[in-house]
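REQUEST FORM: STRUCTURE PREDICTION
Request ID: SP-0412
Submitted by: Lab K.M.
Chain count: 1
Length (residues): 281
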Amino acid sequence: MNPDVAVDVATCLGRHISKLKQIVREVLRRDPQFQAVERLVGYLGCEKAALLVVQNALVSYQLNVTGEEYWTRFAEYYTSTDRVFSPSIADFLRESRSLGRNMDQKISRVSRFLSTPLPEKILRGWRDYCCNLSQFIRELSEAMKADESSKTMVFAAKMLGYVCEACGETISGGDIDVPVDYRNAVLLLKTGVISCGDSFEICVQKVMGEWRKEAVKAWRLMCRASGISCLELDTLLWPITGHLIRASFDPRRARVTILENLQVEVPLEVLEILSGKRPCR
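STATUS: Completed
RESULT:
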């Protein structure tokens, strides 16, 4: 049975999140994932960085470390002064098996991507996608034979957007959805936007899997109510949710680490709502 989406809670949550609209770009700039992309761009240039970043986004799942650490290690690997550039990230995956699971499957996925026309299009015209990331998702989904709303397709567009940002290009995400990954699933459950009677981890897996369509619907409601595009909303909330998780959903502790690491002040009331400590009204 599919879950009911609490429309009133999603809308209320969006209204509260709208208070954070002015800090979206500050959070983006201090997100370690963006900083990793920025480092790659500075070392390799926009074209090569775009190609590598899209590949890595396609396999950034089932990790043994946080997303922040994984992307930091990725940037470190490719900015070693003695490393010869390769258009494939397969060697990185082979040499970094401790960072994630199913590496052989991921190497096969990278090979499949590189066998399509898209890598050449990215190298020659990555800039064209910056103002139309929705078009990039359509082409990537067609090349990989995947659903346009699937987590990795949407995440790849988000990370290509980070390349565009690092290269000084204007970004337009259009109607791109929020990728329903672990953190975004946790947030829907903690806030009561989606209810589930099973154990928390089983519920998270359901939201990321069989309930993904309902989760996407819920995020769209929040985006609309917040007045922030889903692409920007994910950029804002993904790092903040990471701090909440690491603080065991203690809003006060998370507020301190958010200030220390992201250098922004998030109202305690908003963090209490996001952590499920205060009902959204």
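NOTES: The mean pLDDT is 94.
Reviewed by: T.R.
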